[in-house]
Structure formats: structure tokens, C-alpha cells
């Protein structure tokens, strides 16, 4: 359980960085999504890199749009122990990116980042509180099993 909480925190951090990079590329470079995805895959680590790599492959291999690829692949984010609300915020990126002019996209992506940052704070608090408990329970269970085995 401790590792699940840790995985969730790392995944949310990864997606916050990826969405901020996406936002910067849209606003400052005025880059197109097909040009931004390889950059996100290369520059970001963890869950976001893996997810956007799959999105990019789905777009190239199957000819899907960014929105469709994100919609298809977003249920796989459950593997990173993310809550459904967090997955929905990430999924909303597919509805935002490439759909509006650059300032509108930036504004809406800022809202997604703000929501994910709030989720990150909650996940970090939960990890801080429950993580210690889960580690202690695991240690206690291990000691009990060792004593019983002796």
C-alpha cells in the first residue's frame, strides 16, 4: 500500500510537468501537437512519458486524433494508482490541446495543472500520514511471520 501511494504521487508530479511543458510549447513556440509529443516523451519521466508515448504511437499507428488516443488510453492510467478524478483531468487535456487558440489553451491547461497540484498536495498528505502506518504494519507483520516460523 505504501508503494501505491508513492506511485500515485510520482505519477501526478510527472503529469504536472508534462502538461506545463505542453502549455509552454503551445504558447511560446506555437508548436503543433505531433511536434510536442516526442518532446514530452523525451523530456518528462515516469508515467507521463509512458502515457504520451502510447498516445503518440496510437496516433501514428492507427491514425487516431490526439483526443481519440487520449480517450482510448486514459483508463490505463489506473496502473499508476491514480484516482478517477485525476484521470479525468488528464483526459481533459485531450479536449483542450489543439482545439482553441494558444491563449485559451494556456488558460485551460493552467486550470488542469491547478487541479492536479491540489490532488498532488492531497496525495502527499496521504502518503505522509498513511505511508508510515503501512510501513509499520508491514514491518510488524514480517516480524510476526518470522516469530511464528521459528
Description:
- It contains six helices and no strands.
- It has helices spanning 2-29, 33-43, 46-62, 66-73, 84-96, 102-149.
- α3 crosses α4.
- The chain is mostly helical and 150 residues long.
- The protein has one domain (2-149).
Shape: elongated
Largest sheet: none
Count of distinct structural domains: 1
Return residue spans where pLDDT drops below 50 for at least 5 consecutive residues: none
How far is the first residue's CA from the last residue's CA? Answer: 27 Å
Q: For the residues shown, what is the average pLDDT?
A: 84
Secondary-structure element sequence? HHHHHH
Residue fraction in strands? under 5%
Report the total helices: 6
Kindly list the characteristics that best describe this protein.
single chain, 150 residues, mainly alpha, 83% helix
Short description:
This protein is mostly helical and 150 residues long.
Secondary structure: elements and pairs:
Blueprint (H helix, E strand, L loop, with lengths): L1 H28 L3 H11 L2 H17 L3 H8 L10 H13 L5 H48 L1
Helix pairs in contact: 1-2, 1-3, 1-6, 2-3, 3-4, 4-5, 5-6
Amino acid at each position: 500500500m505504501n508503494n501505491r501511494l508513492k506511485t500515485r504521487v510520482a505519477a501526478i508530479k510527472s503529469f504536472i510537468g508534462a502538461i506545463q511543458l505542453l502549455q509552454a510549447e503551445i504558447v511560446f513556440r506555437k508548436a503543433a501537437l505531433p511536434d510536442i509529443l516526442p518532446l514530452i516523451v523525451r523530456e518528462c519521466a515516469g508515467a507521463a512519458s509512458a502515457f504520451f508515448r502510447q498516445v503518440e504511437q496510437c496516433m501514428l499507428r492507427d491514425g487516431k486524433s490526439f483526443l481519440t488516443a487520449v480517450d482510448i488510453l486514459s483508463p490505463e492510467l489506473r496502473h499508476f494508482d491514480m484516482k478517477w478524478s485525476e484521470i479525468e483531468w488528464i483526459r481533459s487535456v485531450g479536449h483542450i490541446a489543439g482545439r482553441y487558440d494558444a491563449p485559451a489553451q494556456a488558460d485551460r491547461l493552467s486550470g488542469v495543472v491547478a487541479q492536479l497540484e491540489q490532488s498532488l498536495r492531497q496525495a502527499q498528505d496521504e502518503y505522509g500520514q498513511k505511508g508510515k502506518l503501512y510501513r509499520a504494519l508491514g514491518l510488524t507483520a514480517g516480524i510476526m511471520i518470522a516469530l511464528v516460523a521459528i
